[in-house]
Amino acid sequence: MAKTRLIGRHEPVGIEKGSRWPLWDRGEIVGMVLRTRTAVKPVYVSVGHRVGLETAVHYTLKCTPQYRLPETTRQANRLASG
Predict the structure, then answer these.
(1) Which residue in 20, 42, 44, 79 is a FRET match for 62, CA 20 to 30 A apart?
(2) CA 76, 81, 82: angle at the middle one, nearest 5?
(3) 69 - beta bridge partners?
(4) pLDDT digits (tens, 9 = 90+) for 25-71
């Protein structure tokens, strides 16, 4: 999961929490653009080791009940920002 897009293109994502759209690069799906909060910027989800895209999307939504980012990512950003 990332706050910004590294590669690929996508269509606009719906404004509601849970809205998603495939992220495409060179004719293949490389991730998913996912809205974790209504009316908040979406995040970018990709597959991991032995984790498929739908599973990654599912866990991202489960880990973001209150904020745009999972708590572990929020804490890491807070510590890195000083």
Answers:
(1) 79
(2) 105
(3) none
(4) 999 999 999 999 999 999 999 998 999 999 999 999 999 999 999 98
The amino acid sitting at 82 is: G
Residue pair 49/59 in contact (Cβ under 8 Å)? The answer is no
Judged on CB neighbours under 10 Å (0-12, 13-18, 19+), 31 is: buried
pLDDT digits (tens, 9 = 90+) for 6-19: 999 999 999 999 99
Q: Find the length of the chain.
A: 82
- Whole-prediction pTM value? 0.91
- Residue boundaries of the structural domains of the chain: 1-70
DSSP code, position 16: S
